[in-house]
Amino acid sequence: MSQPPRPAPSKPPAGKGQLHPRNRHQGRYDFAELIRAHPPLGQFLITNPYGKPSIDFADPLAVRVFNRALLEKDYGVRGWDIPDGYLCPPVPGRADYIHQLADLLAGSHDGLIPRGPGLCALDVGVGANCIYPLLGQHEYGWRFVGADIDPAALTNAAAILAANPTLGAQIELRQQADPQQIFHGLIGADERFDLTLCNPPFHASAAEAISGSQRKWKNLGRLDPKRALPTLNFGGQSNELHCEGGETAFLARMAQQSRDYAEQVFWFSSLVSKAANVAPLEARLRELGVSDLRVLGMSQGQKQSRLLAWTFLDKKQRRAWRKARWPG
């Protein structure tokens, strides 16, 4: 049964390097508790240079098992896994996106976060990990449609949902047949989505993606020539990491195509990795006639990103949408 809407907590916004106030992953990880929830994590436990328990975040298998433990302990997700070489998402950062979207909805709903299966979100590029639908369904009870161009990714996501039938009952998977299309072929003529979300491919080529990972290792003090490190620190298939024109081209295409579904989506949104991409995208969206546009900062440790959200609905249309679809 869905929970009634509750006021969004009156906590200060997250500062630089801080997670959202409702994020479950504040502070240091309790590895003893994580191992109790998922004993296989114990074989990957190390002591970091500060004498604290940790895992080797340069080890893709360790990160996968760590994610599995986090999801099992904090979200009740069983049997989560991804195939070798697929993107392994940092769960705390993905949870922040979901909480930011909840606040965005609350801002249009008298400060109340609308919850329950009456709301539906479209995850563009759900991936093999299915992470956003799993988190959003658990935290707020929203329904999800997860879309991807990769049939193998969807097959794995379906296996995760089959292992979690309570969550899976509210999550539908769809394949995008045309890689050049983002919304066409996914959103039906009579469908309405309260949210769309996306973690776009950030790079223009495989070489650029590899270079980005090497910079991350160097920043973390792990670029040791004597040690064999993974090429990509969180893995990822080509379509997950890069596309022609990189993030700039992908987001420009998303902005343009969103105009065709102006009256069928309340809030469009996407992560934007590169700060320099925000201003041109804002300008293009204004040219396309958006009625509201938000840029929200997000951070996890040293990693900084931003969430861009936009709507074409005017205030009267938004009031009518809320009255028709949102509880409370």
From TrEMBL:
One of its GO terms (biological process) is rRNA base methylation. The keyword Transmembrane helix does not apply. Its main location: cytoplasm. Keywords: Cytoplasm, Methyltransferase, rRNA processing, S-adenosyl-L-methionine, Transferase. One of its GO terms (cellular component) is cytoplasm. GO terms for molecular function: 23S rRNA (adenine(1618)-N(6))-methyltransferase activity. Its EC number is 2.1.1.181. Signal peptide: none annotated. Gene3D superfamilies: Vaccinia Virus protein VP39. It is found in: Cytoplasm. Specifically methylates the adenine in position 1618 of 23S rRNA. HAMAP family: 23SrRNA_methyltr_F. This is Ribosomal RNA large subunit methyltransferase F. It comes from Pseudomonas mangrovi. The gene is rlmF.
